[in-house]
Amino acid sequence: ESPEANNNDxxxxxxxxxxxxxxxxxxxxxxFTIRAGxxxxxEHPQYKGLEKFKEIVEEETDGAIHVETYHSxxxxxxxxxxxxxxLGSQEVTVPSTAPIANFVSDFSIFDFPFxxxxxxxxDEVLDGEVGQKFLDKLDDQNLKGxxxxxxxxxxxxNSEKEVASVDDFEGLTIRTMExxxxxxxxxxxxxxxxxxxxxxxxxxxxxxxxxxxxNPFATIYLEGFYEVQDYxxxxxxxxxxxxxxxxxxxxxxxxxxxxxxxxxxxxxAGKYQRELNREANDEYLDSLVEEGMTFTEISxxxxxxxxxxxxxxxxxxAAELDQDLVNEVYQAIEDAQK
Length: 338
Ligand code: TK8
Known about the structure:
By secondary structure, this protein is an alpha/beta fold. It has 13 helices and eleven strands. It has two domains: 185 residues, D-Maltodextrin-Binding Protein, domain 2 (3-Layer(aba) Sandwich), CATH 3.40.190.170; 139 residues, D-Maltodextrin-Binding Protein, domain 2.
């Protein structure tokens, strides 16, 4: 290697050691340490949001609360990290609502396909009264929901063929999140769904264990799925919220003024994360095509066909949930469009 390269390595090593040193020192001085872990990698807006949360909390508490941020499933998959919050071995994680539904089943409403017509309506409903009612239901699981962030509208990719309508789902093995509604919705469209933690997804796509998956464009691009997937369709079949979760037992140990700091920081960082996420999702479809993926546009008729194919599943799940809450969600969606 050229001497400069070596020199850079040494410089990088010194920088890292310094950063870690500073980190260790900060951790030693802090009254509280928050271990915050997510599944997406450090380029994704989800991680930028976590860094923003860290910046605000450490500044507002003058370092009394120290935040350690982890990405790419370093602390495990979404379910593992939520269980770690319940056990007190981790303080923050930001999963999609789909895995949360395994802890609080009412959350499955947010994975009803085609529930939210756009992100503005989603923001208004989630950040309003009815969104808070769902967050309050997390307390019994020793989870404190502080804010809704954004994963985004989910789109289908696969390595087999162009998907332009429901008929094209036939026979495709699609990885879904670990959520029964997702499984039943993809079965209703003729696909062969397989539930899998996000941490195993890239390898499964690479090895062909599954033909495809569904996630927002930002995730498809930033996680490099274009390297192992050939086709992408803008199905936009589900708007997926993230929920900023804190271990409730940890939250309850914080003095009231620090609770206010983390409450506001989660909301503030969420606004920032949503903005970054929307910019990213708009820009990354072009990047996917530049990386060689074939883009298939889903027509309104084809999307309506998908909605109708899934409708019996949505009705079945809606009947299982708290009817007042379901009606409140639909009413809030209607009001948000007036
Ligand atoms: C990352 C996941 C991801 C989700 C999925 O941990 O599992 O496909 O969309 O964002 O939460």
